[in-house]
Every structure is written in C-alpha cells, then in structure tokens.
Amino acid sequence: MCGIIGILGKQEAAPRLMDGLKRLEYRGYDSAGIATLVNGRIDRRRAEGKLDNLARVLEGEPLTGTAGIGHTRWATHGVPNEANAHPHATDHVAIVHNGIIENYQELRERVGDPSLFLSETDTEVVAHLVGAYLAQGLSPEEAVDCTLPLLEGAFAFVMIFAGHHDLMIGARRGSPLAIGYGEGEMFFGSDALALAPLTKRICYLEEGDWAVVRPDGATIRQLGEDGRSRPVERAVRETAVSGAMIGKGNYRHFMEKEIHEQPAVIGDTLHSYLNPAEGTLTLPGLPIDPAAVPKVTISACGTASYAGMVGKYWIEQLARLPTEVDIGSELRYRETPLPEGGLALFISQSGETMDTLEALRYAKRAGQTILSIVNVPESTIARESDAVLLTQAGPEIGVASTKAFTTQLTVLAALAMAFAKARGTLDRTREAALAAALAEVPGRAAEVLNHDAHIASIARAVADARDVFYMGRGTGYPIALEGALKLKEISYIHAEGYAAGEMKHGPIALIEEDVPVVMIAPSGPLFDKTASNVQEMVSRGGKVIFLSDAEGLTRMRTMAKPFAEIELPKVDPFVAPILYAIPIQLLAYHTAVLKGTDVDQPRNLAKSVTVE
Ligand code: G6P
C-alpha cells in the first residue's frame, strides 16, 4: 500500500525521492507525488498513475531543494487523481500519509472553512489542523503534538514545514515507519527497502511513536493514553536489506525472478530447521509445550492463508492436533472462543497486514500464545509475537506472492513435524523419511522449473478462457485455491479453486466445451478419487490440465486423456504441495505475460495491505 520516503539531505532531494519511490512501487499504487522546500517554501509535483507520469511532470517543471517527502498512493478515500495524490499541503506544511484517518469528517468540521479543502482524501485534514496550530504561533513540534491526540485510525505520516530546512516530523500508529540515519543526513521510509541505498542504519518506530528528525539525529516521543507525549529511546540497527537485492537480474519481471529463486530460498529456509545429514529437525525453543496445546488457531490473509490451510492438514495429520484456519478479517470480528492454553499462529510475508495483525491482537487478548511465520524480522507481527519462525525468502517485490508462499509451507512442514515429535505421533523412522523428503525439495523444485517452456505453451489455452477451474484434494485443495488466486491476480481471468470432491455440488454445471480445469493430482492415497473427477471433466468437454508424477500420468492415460500434462517429480505426498505450487505460479505468470498485463503491479492490488 502507500509508500513513504522523507529526506533531509545534502544533495538535491527530488532525484533521490524518485529513486526511493521506485523501490516502493512494488507495494502497489495508483498516483504519486513529491514535495520539497525551495527557498523555504513548499513546492510539490504530483501525478495520477505510474511514476513515469510524475517523472514527466518533473522534467517539465523540476523541483530543487535538499529536503523533501515523497509518496506512492493506493487510493482509499477519493479516486486516484492528481488532486487526491500526496503530498497534501498548506502554505506552511506538507504531509505524506499511509493508513486511514477514521474521524476525518469530524475533523474537517473542526477545521471549518470547506473551501480550504482541495481533495477528497482523509489525509488533507491533518495538514489543515497542523497548519492552523502553526498559524496560532506554535512551533512545528508543538503543532504536531497538539494534532496527534485528535487523530483516530491507523497511520504513518511524515511532514516538512515551510521555513524549516532542517526538520522533518514523522509519526506511527498502526502503519510502519522507519528512520534512516546517514552521515549528516536523515531519512524516513515506510520500509527498509525504500532506504536501502541511502543507509543501512535504521530505527523502526513503535506504535504511538513520533519523531522529530534533524540532520544530526532524531528525538523520539511516545504518545500516551492520556494524550501526552514522553521521550523514549529506540534502538538503531543495521539492516541486512541491500539495494542490490532488489534488481530484476536477467528476468523480465520480479515475479518470474522470484519463482525461479524458489529452490535457493526454500533451501535457505530449510537450513535453519533441518539437519539433513542426521535426518533430524530442530525448531528454536517454542514458548509452549505442543503436547499440552488443546488447539492451534491459524490466521492470515490471501496467499498466506492458503499456506495456513496446508499447515492445518499437516498439523492435524502428523501431530493429531486440532487446528483451525481463519482469514484475518474474519477471526478478528467473529468473536470465536479460543481455548485456554491455545496456540495462535499468524502467517505473513510482510508482517504488516492489518487484518492479520488485528487477529493477532484479538488472540493475545484471548490469552493465546502467539507464534508467527514472517519474512520480515523487524515487522510489527514479528515484534508482537511470543516467538517467530522466519522464512528466508528475501525481499519479495512482485505483488503476487510466490517464494514467500513456498517458504511459508517449508516452515509449516517443519513445524508440523516438530509438533508431531513432541506429541509422540512421529516415530524416528518416519521423521527421517519426512526430513529426507523435505531435504530433497530444493532439488526437486529446480526440476519443476525445467518445465517452464512447456507450461508457457499450455498458458495459450488458459489465456483465451473466460473461466478457469482449479481442483485438488487434501493438501492439493489449498494449492488449487492458490492457483486460482494467482491467475485472478495477474491475468484478470475469472478463476475458482475447489476441493475436487465438491465438483458435483455445483462447479460441474459450468464445465462445458473448452473450459480449462487445472487438476492437482500427485500420486498417493487420494489419486484414484481425483482421477475419476478428471474423467467426469473430460467427458463434458473440459480441457483438463493434469499435474501429476510419472506414475500418476501413466495411470491417468488408461482412464481418460487430459488436454495437457505437466509432469512433476515423484515425491512423498507430504511435500507435494510445496512442489505443485510452482507450476501453478508459472501457469499464471505465462498467461499474464500473454495477456500483456502489468505482472508485478497488477491493477488495484497492493503488496502489503495495511488498511482494513
Ligand atoms: C496482499 C498481497 C498478497 C498477500 C496478502 C497477505 O493481498 O497482494 O500477495 O498474500 O496481501 O500478505 P502478507 O504480507 O500478510 O503475507
């Protein structure tokens, strides 16, 4: 969602702000803008659409000045046009904001004069409130201090002030914000990626913090429940994120690169949990005894929630431990009773998804032990958890999640095994077999990627379709859901995922001549049932794209002829969902390329959804 960058520098700010915004593009946005201080006055340029449009505006009317703020906006209140683009400004203050000011209507009335408002956004009112305090003679710090307690909702914002070349003020409540420390320069960024080439020394603001930043450092205060601010100390850390990690290399899109990184990042993730030589698995000390846990409640959004569904199947099958999965936006509101001594597990690439975070807080209030699987160690979800299991996916830039998903599955597989060991439902021989199957996954994933060209040729049939169905059983069912989501997200083709056993309860009515049906069918205990579903599809004219191993493909051919086959390596059914995720990612990717969509930044989508 919205990206923020702020610079108090020694060189021209505009090119550096644009560079920072480029690195924030992956979050998803529909307009952008920057503001700088030019001879003490606020000047700004904004444009609807992609950064190229803003760059063209800047070519025509360059912005000078060494202090400035920039923003990529993902529209919530008000359409994505220039007037609604950030920064919003008065003569005295300019602001960029991520999140939603929920009481903005009420605050607009407080400001009074409606003619002051030039946009439909919730953000602009903050500029007018601060501007009004400045007009009364308050300093910028005092004006922000008076404004913050008035704001309801979730936000991160950064402001610059006319006549104050050496000052930026930023605040965080709900949405992340980091301060970057340079050599005589200071920065703000909505994530470490924005700041990567500028500095490695970063301080993440905590909930309720606000910071007064000057070229030689920052003073951080925390807004208390009594509406008063008190000084706090926050650690400055070295971040591992580097500018080099976020190039596309020789790939056309980040998504393609990230799909192809999977053998390596699954390997890196496994490395933290598995000892392949000994066939054993170790998790860092969990804050609970899995043998005493009555129930696991998993919550996540989007792709991460499908990883959670696979996790549920694994934890229940291997560890015989009742597990429920809920999407974040449902768990947080449906007042589900959570048992005493229960474990709540949250899965999130970014660690910032608002609904997942709020579900976590709900579970915490209900006395659950909080475990999270995240890709960003400094994220809010990681910081609010009792224990964190990291995926080692590296920065994921493509909006449609790929390597984050398979590394989440990798951690969940290790977790299910650890639970099973602790609960005495996994003997040493089976542990060694599963550990060996997991250790093979990176190599097997590389084999799957060799089918790239073949999958690209199958994508032609999918690209012409109006509707596409994905079906699977067992852990193949969440993979079917994820396949349909991937296709929808980046190719804009209507797709649905179903449990293959549900086919006769509805979706079969839609199967007619040439409707593509992607069947996830690794050989194993559920194969025959899935194969008979394939027969039913083929006999109704469906174009079945059949994903199985050599054994399954041979068996299928004796029953019905699928339209296309994708052969995967034969593996233990336990690890099959990790591998079967890869061809469905490639199928969606190649279909989107054929359709000419914006693969890395699909319309209307954001990488990290930090509002409800
Ligand atoms: C957005 C992204 C998805 C992602 C979901 C959850 O919808 O577009 O790719 O799966 O958020 O994100 P998280 O960072 O919590 O995994």
Automatic annotation (TrEMBL):
PANTHER family for this protein: GLUCOSAMINE--FRUCTOSE-6-PHOSPHATE AMINOTRANSFERASE, ISOMERIZING, GLUTAMINE--FRUCTOSE-6-PHOSPHATE TRANSAMINASE (ISOMERIZING)
Protein task: Catalyzes the first step in hexosamine metabolism, converting fructose-6P into glucosamine-6P using glutamine as a nitrogen source.
UniProt GO MF annotations: carbohydrate derivative binding; glutamine-fructose-6-phosphate transaminase (isomerizing) activity
NCBIfam families membership: glmS, PRK00331.1
Catalytic site positions: 2, 607
CDD domains (UniProt xref): GFAT, SIS_GlmS_GlmD_1, SIS_GlmS_GlmD_2
GO CC terms of this entry: cytosol
Main location: cytoplasm
Catalytic activity: D-fructose 6-phosphate + L-glutamine = D-glucosamine 6-phosphate + L-glutamate
One Pfam match: SIS
Enzyme Commission number: 2.6.1.16
Name the UniProt record assigns to this protein: Glutamine--fructose-6-phosphate aminotransferase [isomerizing]
Quaternary assembly: Homodimer.
Gene Ontology biological process terms, A to Z: amino sugar biosynthetic process; carbohydrate metabolic process; fructose 6-phosphate metabolic process; protein N-linked glycosylation; UDP-N-acetylglucosamine metabolic process
Organism superkingdom: Bacteria
Record-linked InterPro entries: GATase_2_dom, GFAT, GFAT_N, GlmS/AgaS_SIS, GlmS/FrlB_SIS, Ntn_hydrolases_N, SIS_dom, SIS_dom_sf
Keywords assigned by UniProt, alphabetized: Aminotransferase, Cytoplasm, Glutamine amidotransferase, Repeat, Transferase
Location of the protein in the cell: Cytoplasm
All copies of domain Glutamine amidotransferase type-2, residue ranges: 2-216
Native source organism of the sequence: Marivibrio halodurans
